[in-house]
Amino acid sequence: MKEKLIFIGLKVLYVFIAWLVTLIVNKIFQKILVKNVTKKSDIHTQKLVSKLTAYTIYLIGLVVIFSIIGIKPETIITSLGLFSVAIGFAAQTSLSNVISGFFILFEKPFKIGDAIEINGYVGEVLSIDLMSITMRTFDNVLVRIPNETVLKASIKNYTKFDVRRLDITVGISYDADIEKAKAVIERFLDSNPHVLKEPGYTVMTKELADSSVNLRILVWIDRKEYFTAYDSIVTGIKEALDREGIEIPFPQVVVHIENEKQD
Description:
This protein is of the alpha+beta class and about 260 residues long. About 50% of the residues lie in helices and about 20% in strands. The chain has helices at about 1-35, 45-70, 75-80, 85-105, 145-150, 180-190, 225-245, and strands at about 115-120, 120-130, 130-135, 140-145, 155, 165-170, 200-210, 215-220. A five-stranded antiparallel beta sheet has the order 4-3-2-1-5. A hairpin with a 4-residue loop joins strand 7 and strand 8.
């Protein structure tokens, strides 16, 4: 009985040492990767390579531990064969997500920190993993999307380029002078610090709507100032038109009532 307890104790010790060595080896490899490989890559590639390396080392460590316990790798594979159908379906989905993750890695439609829109969700990318991406929406909700879904979806990347365009529609009264209104707006845009001089702006007549003549204003801004610039420009246009007495009408319905002649 004493010899059996000593044998079990040694097994436990060997397992502990094997797992400790696995953790140390992983830490060493992670430092080597940071120093020689991932430091030259983007955050997305760094995390992906780091996780692949860690998973590989952990797998080797588990095989060693199973060998110490007395379980041969081929025995584990044979046992898993009993669940091959169930595992096959799970593996198919997982493998599809992993492969999609590599396509995303090489195509790079976005990176960690980008603001994107995908499948109706708009937010900041927090992580890009082997199986999925996670993002935080602007109302602070965490969303996880499988890589396969990401690869098939249409993606809008709002932070890919440094310059963004604002498309603003302003309605003026039918009684207003269109050219005067354009000139007022152009003077304001010339003086607004958020409006980029290059590639410039455009003010044009868009349409004759039901209650107003709609002007379309295309303005280029620095994307980092998007919300500040949008508020400044829209507010400034309204105030500039008000100062010149140019009315921005609200929707109106004119009802004509005809008197019927009685015989």
